[in-house]
Specification:
The protein is an all-alpha fold and 106 residues long. It is 78% helix and 0% strand.
Length: 106
């Protein structure tokens, strides 16, 4: 979804409010998308930890069927990086997908 990709791009540039807005719109369109929920969790962490926890749990639930994963910033960052790679694969951006997956291996 373009909203998720744009929301992630805004997140990476530090445009947190715009990122959160775009990601919430994406979630309204696709409420079971774990990629969007993981990205929103990352965008919420600096200012809204309870909401970030809830978003992270939804991402985990929709991605794995498990909602009791531990909450930690490292987990959210890892899920978001993998999510960007999966999203890139879905839209056919294989170079970006490889970059994101390689980042996880470092």
């Amino acid at each position: 979804d373009a909203q998720v990709i744009n929301g992630l791009a805004r997140l990476e540039r530090g445009e947190m409010a715009t990122s959160r807005s775009m990601l919430r719109r994406a979630i309204r369109r696709h409420p079971l998308d774990p990629v969007a929920w993981a990205a929103l969790a990352s965008a919420l962490v600096p200012h809204h930890e309870p909401a970030a926890r809830a978003a992270y749990r939804r991402a985990a639930l929709y991605a794995t069927g498990v909602d009791e994963l531990p909450f930690a910033h490292e987990y959210i960052a890892a899920v978001a990086d993998v999510a960007r790679g999966v999203r890139a694969l879905r839209v056919g951006d294989y170079a970006l997908a490889v970059d994101e997956f390689e980042r996880q291996l470092r």
